[in-house]
Amino acid sequence: MLLIERREIYSIEGDSMLPALKDGERVLVDENAVFGIGDIVIAQHPFKSDVVMAKRITSIDVNGKYFLVGDNSGESGDSRTFGPVPIDYIQGKVTSRFE
Length: 99
Fold this sequence. Notes:
single chain, 1 helix, mainly beta, six-stranded antiparallel sheet, globular
């Protein structure tokens, strides 16, 4: 059995995930990781194709869509505005961070 891990580095922009992630910090994202409630993920914005965002999964609805919320609610555009997103919009789970 051959196991291939795919990981990408992303840079955090903005303050929506403070205090967990800060502006300018880089994160390692596992594109094959299993993720669930409480995990921070990188996701495509559902209405802005050029925007990729880091958010925390707070719930999964009966249709399997993910509710994504920023930890810093006053600075976050998230599922409270645009609704839950399908799994296809999630690019991977944040597994580590570094400056």
